[in-house]
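Pilot study result, target chain (126 residues):
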Amino acid sequence: MWITKAEMRRLLNQISAAESRAIRAEDALAAERQSKDWLTLQLASRVVTKGGQYGLEHEAPKLQSPPAAHPLGFTHEPTDVDNAKLEYYIQCARNAGVPNYEEDARAKWEAEMRGELLIPTYDDGQ
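Predicted structure:
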């Protein structure tokens, strides 16, 4: 038995939609379970505290704080590859005869390290 291309595409789209619905449902279930676990912990803590025992944690779990930002705004700490790239930029700027080549190359490298989009400038000699 053969299936047409259109029918195959329709079936694959349905499978993709079903998989995405299943993933969303699993995520919602996990979030609900986590909130119920915390509520259960709070209820147990109150029961234990009323019995004269030490209670469990009483504050909601805090979200993990983002890592401290780099002082120069870099997306990550410079690695050996990044440092080699800086040296390459300096060498290319020196070979191109750019005035203040080291500062220019460092500025471009730092912009790249901050995740900024660099637009190359081409000199056509005019």
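One observation from the pilot: The first helix runs from residue 5 to 50. A full batch analysis is planned for the follow-on phase.
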